[in-house]
Design a protein that fits this description.
CATH class of the domain at 418-493 and 711-853: Alpha Beta
CATH superfamily of the domain at 418-493 and 711-853: Response regulator
Mean pLDDT: 78
Helix content: 55-70%
Low-confidence stretches: 1-25, 642-656, 700-712
Number of helices: 34
Number of strands: 12
CATH topology of the domain at 418-493 and 711-853: Rossmann fold
Shape: elongated
């Protein structure tokens, strides 16, 4: 027994000698006591259901966008990662990854990858991150991901002994997070917490406690219950590390109360290890075993780093209590644990072997092993001091510099307050002058307010007048276009030879181009208001471009300019793109090239390639001409609205100067850009790039005729045999609708205004109403409101066919009770598609039911 006591005394002496550091216990005690009072001031209750507070924040974050969604989902994944709650972490990682792919959110995808790697890194002994990972997350994923990755980087640098780098990075990132504001407070709290670990490693225990206190203050009432439990654990563990065992036990008791209230098995595993760690620091082996007793089954079969560390403590306690068989059995299990789960610690195993030898009454072996442990520990300590001395000095210097900066800031605040106090005297003197001038100032403000209100009224009136003018202009020009394009589309369904079909296609494409030019003014207004959207559909990009270029061949021949279209490399597959906007962009570039090319040639080239970063198709359209070219001064103002080279350009070549401005903005909306290379006298090259998705197999061609090509489908269409009421005051428009619906054997009844439409509905039963908006006697909006008030017609499909295309006009149609809106000029494919959708949605056939009755 005496030999055993001497052995323990020798070990205690060695541990004291190798500690190498004395602590300012009184200062630390005061800090810990203040922190304990701050933490235990309010009663902390767990959520009603396990981790419900985390799940609630996660669900709210999924409904948000931008940085709110990013930081909210980081807090959820980080909470589960830090506490190694694998099922919930994996579930949220899958959900966030799926959301990132659906929204094509590269930043959100980087967040999932980062925290999944961090989870493996922490659970596998901090060996997962490699240099390529840090380059990706710290340098190539944007500022938000960099700050989130910096927390993991600081932790890793601190554990690997790179304390100077860890301290520098912590100081930099905490400054950035403070400037980020409230959205980054949880991330800032974690930065303070992981930095406290680094300070603890280098011996700055007071600094470590300062940063833990700062983390706790940042948490306040906003942290998850699980994160609050972890924060208490870290404080208790650090207190035990610095030798403040009484304070450690106070915090451990709070931790135990919170884990018992939560009932989470994983938290209880941490609680048992914390209890055993403090008992081991007090050299109380029996208490160590009591702490670990409830988790004996999982400790005997360690599956993670925490249970492995708990097994080390249990083996040492068993050896100290004279149970060598149990201690040796635990030692064998420890040595069999994979290094991916628990890193090997030869020093701990050597000391444990010495305890076992003593328990087996092999005193000489025990002292020999102890002496070997002492020498190795001394060599390891000296090597660490030699190797890490510069690191420790640099890290402490960084922390001191941070403290100096904070001190200077506080000094500046004190000086500012002093100056403000002096200035208050002057302010009091000026107050009298201000009171006297107040009356005059208020009178001036009243007059300025009246003038401002009048100016605002004039501006609003001008804006309303502009909108009204645009609406009227669009309506009046679209009505004759509807007749021209409608007849051409109907003609396309006839049996035509190849030459006639080509002429019809050119007629339709020319009409579409005219419509695009008409839309330029409206589009510019929409773009500037942020209301223009891209509507991709499946289509043949080569066919769209080829037909557009073919439409400009007569113009090129008239000018004796050679116009060519070339596909570079393999033709692109069926793509999802907005054919109208692509035609609009290419038409602007092509018309400019022909306009400014007097002799020579204009070449249009199409190329595409998969984009490895986005997984989408990158499309490049190049328009090269041998025209007059441009000077650098002209290039600098080329893309401005209503801008051309100079006044002579407008007189000589004409144009509004809108085309290139709209083209550039459309390219940006399609995730692309437009570039230009030009010089005076050598022509110009415009390059339009944009992104498109590859269409799924079986998607229809946006450029191919979708009507009249497969008559067998017409008999199966929901439109077949329907009774349709066509309400329009313009006979050409009614003629176009009749031609479009003729192949479906629809029974059409035509009326000229809303009053006649209501009378017709009283007399007959219809399956569908096609309603114009602007008509004499009664317009389509009023007619629709009246029929919707009648219970007989609440489910009758009503579709607006109108030249009103502005967003407010469309919304007015829908608010009046119409089911859908089709803009004039009417596209046959759009008409059939919308009518089928409306009929399917309504699911009624009143005319057929009436006939059966």
């Amino acid at each position: 027994m005496r030999r055993y006591v001497l052995f323990l005394a020798a070990i205690a002496t060695l541990l004291t000698a190798t500690g190498g550091q004395a602590f300012a216990l009184s200062a630390q005690s005061a800090k810990l006591d203040a922190l304990y009072r701050e933490v235990s001031r309010d009663e902390i209750k767990p959520p009603a259901r396990e981790n419900d507070d985390i799940e609630r924040v996660g669900r709210r974050a999924l409904r948000q966008h931008g940085e709110k969604r990013l930081y909210g989902l980081w807090s959820v994944l980080y909470a589960y990662k830090s506490n190694q709650v694998e099922p919930q972490f994996d579930d949220w990682a899958r959900r966030v990854r799926r959301l990132a792919k659906d929204d094509n959110d590269a930043e959100l995808l980087a967040l999932v990858d980062l925290l999944q790697t961090a989870y493996r890194h922490e659970s596998g002994g901090f060996r997962t991150f490699n240099d390529a990972d840090w380059v990706r997350y710290m340098d190539r994923s944007g500022p938000n991901i960099r700050m989130m990755a910096a927390v993991e980087r600081i932790r890793t640098l601190g554990r690997s002994g790179q304390w100077a780098d860890a301290s520098r990075l912590a100081a930099e990132v905490m400054g950035q997070l403070e400037r980020k504001g409230p959205i980054a407070r949880p991330l800032l709290a974690e930065a303070h917490q992981v930095h406290s670990y680094t300070l603890s490693y280098i011996g700055d225990k007071e600094g470590a406690l300062d940063h833990m206190s700062q983390a706790a203050r940042l948490d306040e009432g906003n942290a998850f219950y699980m994160r609050k439990v972890e924060r208490i654990y870290d404080i208790a563990y650090t207190a035990a590390e610095v030798g403040e065992l009484d304070a450690a036990e106070h915090f451990a008791s709070v931790h135990h109360h919170m884990t018992q209230a939560a009932g989470d098995p994983d938290l209880k595993t941490w609680d048992r290890y914390l209890c055993a760690r403090i008992a081991n620091a007090r050299h109380a082996p029996a208490r160590v075993l009591r702490c670990l007793d409830a988790g004996a089954f999982e400790i005997a079969r360690p599956t993670n780093r925490l249970t492995g560390l708990s097994l080390r403590l249990r083996a040492q306690a068993q050896a100290e209590l004279g149970d060598p068989a149990a201690a040796r059995a635990d030692l064998d299990v420890i040595r069999a644990i994979p290094v991916e789960t628990l890193e090997r610690d030869p020093q701990a195993e050597l000391l444990l072997s010495a305890y076992i030898a003593l328990a087996e009454h092999r005193g000489e072996d025990a002292f020999r092993l102890l002496d070997q442990w002492r020498r190795q520990d001394h060599e390891k300590t000296q090597a660490a001091l030699s190797r890490n001395g510069a690191q420790m000095a640099s890290a402490l210097e960084t922390e001191l510099r941070s403290k100096r900066d904070e001190s200077r800031r506080l000094t500046a605040e004190v000086e500012l307050n002093r100056r403000l106090a002096h200035a208050s005297i002057i302010i009091a003197m000026l107050l009298g002058v201000l009171v006297l001038g107040g009356v005059g100032w208020s009178f001036y403000l009243r007059r300025a307010s009246v003038r401002l209100k009048e100016a605002r009224g004039r501006a609003e009136s001008a804006n309303e007048a502009k909108s009204a003018f645009l609406a009227v202009m669009s309506h009046e020009l679209r009505t004759p276009l509807n007749g021209m394009l409608g007849m051409a589309q109907a003609l396309r369904t006839e049996a035509l030879n190849a030459r006639q079909r080509e002429q019809v296609e050119l007629m339709i494409d020319s009409g579409d181009t005219l419509l695009v030019l008409l839309n330029d003014i409206l589009d510019l207004s929409k773009i500037e208001a942020g209301k223009l959207e891209i509507a991709p559909t499946a289509g043949d990009l080569v066919g769209v471009c080829a037909r557009l270029v073919g439409g400009y061949q007569p113009t090129a021949r008239e000018k004796d300019v050679e116009l060519t279209f070339t596909v570079l490399g393999e033709p692109p597959p069926m793509l999802m793109f907005d054919a109208v906007r692509v035609r609009q962009c290419l038409a602007n570039l092509l018309s400019n090239a022909l306009k400014f090319t007097v002799v020579g040639r204009v070449d249009v080239a199409l190329a595409w390639a998969p984009d490895p970063q986005t997984g989408r198709a990158g499309v490049r359209l190049t328009v090269t001409d041998t025209g007059i070219g441009m000077s650098p001064a002209t290039l600098s103002k080329l893309f401005g609205a209503f801008t051309q080279a100079d006044a002579s350009t407008t007189r000589t070549f004409g144009g509004t100067g809108l085309g290139l401005n709209i083209t550039r903005r459309l390219a940006e909306l399609m995730d692309g850009e437009i570039l230009v290379d030009s010089g005076e006298g050598r022509g110009s090259t415009f390059t339009l790039t944009f992104q498109a998705d590859v269409a799924a197999s079986g998607a229809t061609d946006a450029g191919a005729p979708a009507f009249g090509a497969a008559s067998e489908d017409e008999a199966l269409s929901p439109l077949h045999g329907r009774r349709v009421l066509v309400v329009d005051d313009h006979p050409v428009n009614r003629r176009v609708i009749k031609l479009f619906l003729a192949p479906f054997d629809c029974d059409l009844v035509e009326v000229e205004n809303g009053r006649e439409a209501l009378d017709a509905l009283e007399a007959e039963v219809f399956d569908l109403v096609l309603m114009d908006v602007n008509m004499p006697v009664m317009d389509g909006l009023e007619a629709t409101r009246r029929l919707r008030r009648d219970p007989r017609w609440t489910t009758l499909p009503v579709v607006a066919l109108t030249a009103d295309v502005m967003r407010t006009q469309i919304d007015t149609c829908l608010e009046a009770g119409m089911d859908a809106h089709i803009a004039k000029p009417i596209d046959l494919r759009d008409l059939v598609s919308v009518l089928v959708q409306v009929l399917d949605r309504r699911g009624a056939n009143p005319a057929a039911e009436s006939a059966q009755a």
